[in-house]
Amino acid sequence: MAASKRKGKSSLPPSSPSKASEIKPDADSDLDESVEFEQEQVVPVKVNNGSITELKNALDDSTKVHLTKNHNFIEDHSHDDIKLTLGWVSSLLAGAVSFAGWHYGWEKTQGYTLYVVVVYWIIATIALVHATFVQKQIIYVGRRASMNDKSTFERITISTESTSYDPIYKVNLDYEIPKKNGIKKYQTDLKPHYKDFFDVDGTLMESIWNSYLDGILKTAISKAN
């Protein structure tokens, strides 16, 4: 009986830990690949075809992402920083005078409140002047190391504009490349139609827009060199 039991046990195929360990990594790798695939998938941008503002904002945002991600430009956020700084200062002044009025009473703080109101309007005026005469229609300012000289930087400035009830996306591109004899510039104005980059459902065809933008950039670089 004992011999038959031993024989029966030995006849069973032993489990191979090496095979079991091989299955687990394969499953994990498949899971990792599926996760990476999901992360790489881009959610399509969909807007209201009847809204010029939404159409413009979608192309503006796509332009910023494409230039930074695919062309290695470093975006200059100076205009945004100025607006944020002025906004924060205005908010802090308003909060401070409100707290002082609540804590000390109106009669003791009314003189200070007048000064704060004057300063607030000065800051608001500065912000308006900056947006109107300095930033204007600029949506993107970026720079990257020059292909000819890594110690210098090429600079790109893009301005866009659209008017109500006019489905034209006005683009102004200004490109600067440093040379030994100074900075060489190239500027161009383009007026594509929104329907060229959005389908009937309002979905942005990013590949088409990116190709269009690549063409503009390629022309700018060749003309500036």
UniProtKB/TrEMBL annotation:
A biological process term (GO) from this entry: protein targeting to ER
Transmembrane spans: 86-106, 112-134
Chain intervals with Low complexity compositional bias: 10-20
Keywords: Endoplasmic reticulum, Membrane, Transmembrane, Transmembrane helix
Organism domain of life: Eukaryota
Annotated region (Disordered), positions in chain: 1-35
Its membrane topology: Multi-pass membrane protein
Annotated Gene Ontology cellular component terms: signal peptidase complex
Subcellular location per the Swiss-Prot or TrEMBL entry: Endoplasmic reticulum membrane
Keyword Transmembrane helix recorded: yes
Primary localisation category: endoplasmic reticulum
Family membership: Belongs to the SPCS2 family.
Reported function: Component of the signal peptidase complex (SPC) which catalyzes the cleavage of N-terminal signal sequences from nascent proteins as they are translocated into the lumen of the endoplasmic reticulum. Enhances the enzymatic activity of SPC and facilitates the interactions between different components of the translocation site.
Name used for this protein in its record: Signal peptidase complex subunit 2
